Amino acid sequence: MSAASTLSRRVVGRADAAAAASRAGEHLDLVEAPFTLPRSRLMVFRDGERLRVHTSEYERSLEECVVLDALEVRDVAGAALPVTRVLPHAVELGDAAVTLTFAGPHALGIGVAGGGEAVVSWTARAGDEREELRIGGRHAASVVLTVGDDRGVEFARSDAHAEHLASTEATWLDWFARCPVVRADLQGMAAFCWWVLGANIVELPQLGDARAVVPSKIGYVGLWQWDAYFIAVGLRHGDPELAREQLDLALRFPSADGQLPDVVHELGVLATSDDLPPADRENLRRAGSAVADPTAPVPLTKPPLAAWALAKVLEVEDAPEWARERLAVIRRSQDWWFAHSDLDGDGLPEYGHPYSSGLDDSPVFDGPLPTTTPDLAAYLVLQDTELARLAERYGADAAGDPVAHRARAARTLDLLLGMWNPGAGRFEGRAAGERVATDAIVGFMPLLTGRLPEPVLDALLGALADPDRYALPWSVPTVSAADPDFSATRMWRGPVWVNTNRLIVAGLRASGRTDLADDLAERTVALVVHGGGPHEYFDPLTGRKAPTATTAFGWSAALFIDLAVELSAETRIPTHHSRQTRKSA
Q1: What is the percent of the chain where pLDDT is above 70?
Q2: Which of 104, 178, 267, 462 could form a disulfide with 238 if both were Cys (CB 3.0 to 4.6 A apart)?
């Protein structure tokens, strides 16, 4: 077991869980990070003096899921009690004269401190009449607001507020007791990222109360296959069981021919274009995409990184029987790519839909489909290589013949190298057979093979070090700054994503460039700290959250944890934590 894996099983323990919770609370502003509870679908945000309560639902916006449009607390003289402190288990108002907490996963409790009085008022929808209730004094000290499946709210007076506070605090302390130990300068953000992972746990009752750590309760309420892999890689450091559960869900619903679905959600799965929600189809139509309404269903999946994620999770806590069962599914999925997604029959699978790439809005997919890309080829090489290694560890009956996997990896690598354009100094894809000249981050994923010729490796390292292309103040942009399609803020067309950085770090290590891997890992965790949290994506020029990015994002949080644990196991001292002006990778 590596040093990083050894450290990853060091968690804070009950004695320090409260300190970790307090550090996380410093980031809970109720704007970018709501007040919520693991397994609950309720979220509380702040809007001026009022609080707003929403549910979290698949393919529904916050505005579609309003529970209480306005929740306010005033003293008996009518003065509003402002939010003065937020902890994971409680929102304090008026210097803790009143606290808001959870009364179970479906209810909120609001109570006054001993001997106090307050008036709680709420409006269910904008324009509705306001309801109010006095608590304390001769009345019960708290009110419990219970939310039904229809988002309707029932209220009841209660004297159990202390018990609700204690129960909610215990839930969070139990979660923070699993928070991995990291370097002192990374502890505060690690605690917040660990909060994000706990906050994003939802139950999927239709799947036997399965715990899904969703990308975000704000707009991404489902288990996307790719996200599940990255989230599991981070969770493994504190909760290997929950990490395995994410892989279980991602691998639970293969098709008859082995394809894994894009999304597992509370209403079913999304596995073909026929399953797309109306909003997704409309977005594709606006973009002029031919796959908005295809004449035949197009399979929807995500890049083949299952074996990589499985191997990472098993580094921390071995589970042989569990691994063998999952390997059988991954092996069939890998075979599916070659049997059913090699759409032009040249031996190299393609993406039949941009959603299957995970980089939906990349300019790589501005042309016709199917699209052959260097990242998919690299992932397939990596997956066959991992399957071969895992077959030798757990048996060929589950993972397949290791010799056959390595042979296929070698063939795929040869085809991948055929995508290298020496004149341009980059890997280039093909769209329906035509060259794709976009200079995008997909061209760095071949580093993951660890087997690139030296001239190719040198050219890629040169690109990472080029201030006109990828060595921006905050790296690595998802499209080169020299590319005409570059945008610093538009999804997958320039912003920095933590998951692609994490894969490049892995690729640099696989390619023997540990120094550069360490440097990019340091710059990535510094970006999250500088940006104020694990956002969905970041502006590479400012290091701040891009305007349309989601906050409290699952894989950004998980991979910050993963990188922080890895860096904390090493002895090197970081030389920079803020503005990234380096001119080398």
Answers
A1: 95
A2: 178
DSSP code at position 264: E
Question: Shortest CA distance to 62 belongs to which of 32, 20, 85, 91?
Answer: 32
Average pLDDT for 375-404: 97
Instruction: Give bridge partners of residue 108 from the DSSP assignment.
Output: 102, 145
User: Which position has the token pair 């300190």?
Assistant: 19
Q: How many whole angstroms separate alpha carbon 539 and alpha carbon 474?
A: 8
What DSSP line would sit under 502-530, residue for residue? HHHHHHHHHTT-HHHHHHHHHHHHHHHHH
- The fold adopted by the segment(s) 180-568 is Glycosyltransferase (1.50.10)
Output DSSP code: residue 97. T
Nearest to 474 by CA among 495, 505, 460, 447: 495
In this prediction, residue 573 carries a pLDDT of 44
127: left (phi over 0), alpha (psi -120 to 50) or beta: left
Q: Cα 277 from chain centroid?
A: 21
State mean pLDDT over 80-88: 96
Instruction: Spell out the residues 6+ positions from residue 210 whose beta carbon is closer than 8 angstroms to its own.
Output: 203, 204, 245, 248, 249
Three-state secondary structure string covering 531-577:
HCCCCCCECCCCCCECCCCCCCCHHHHHHHHHHHHHHHCCCCCCCCC
Dihedral, CA atoms, 300, 303, 304, 307, nearest 10 degrees?
-120
Task: Enumerate helices (H) and strands (E) in the chain, giving the number of each.
Answer: 16, 21
For the stretch 517-545, pLDDT in tens is: 999 999 999 999 999 999 999 999 999 99
8 A C-beta contact, residue 438 and residue 364:
yes
The closest alpha carbon to 105, from 36, 158, 151, 198, belongs to 36
- Answering whether pTM is above 0.90, one says yes
Q: What is the pLDDT of residue 526?
A: 98
Asked whether residue 170 carries a pLDDT value surpassing 90, the answer given is: yes
- Residue 217 identity: K
Q: Please, which residues have CB within 8 angstroms of residue 152's CB and are 6 or more apart in sequence?
A: 124
Are 199 and 218 a contacting pair, CB within 8 Å? no
Contact present, 463 and 512 (Cβ < 8 Å): no
- Per cent of the chain over pLDDT 90 is 85
Q: Which residue has tokens 């990019």?
A: 520
* Residue ranges of domains in the chain: 42-174, 180-568
Binned at pLDDT 50, 70 and 90, residue 9 comes out as low
Q: Which amino acid, residue 422?
A: P
Band (14; pLDDT cuts 50, 70, 90): low
The residue count for the chain: 585
- Helix 187-199 × helix 161-176 angle, to 10°: 120
**Torsion of Cα atoms, 401 then 402 then 404 then 405, to 10°:** 120
Rg (CA), the chain: 25
- What span, in angstroms and rounded, lies between the C-alpha atoms of 94 and 107? 22
Of 345, 364, 391, 244, nearest to 303 by C-alpha is 364
- Give the pLDDT band of residue 570 (cuts 50, 70, 90): low
Provide mean pLDDT across the span 32-49.
95
Do 524 and 502 touch, CB atoms closer than 8 A? Answer: yes
Residues forming beta bridges with residue 395, ordered by sequence position? none
Q: What is the mean pLDDT of residues 83-99?
A: 97
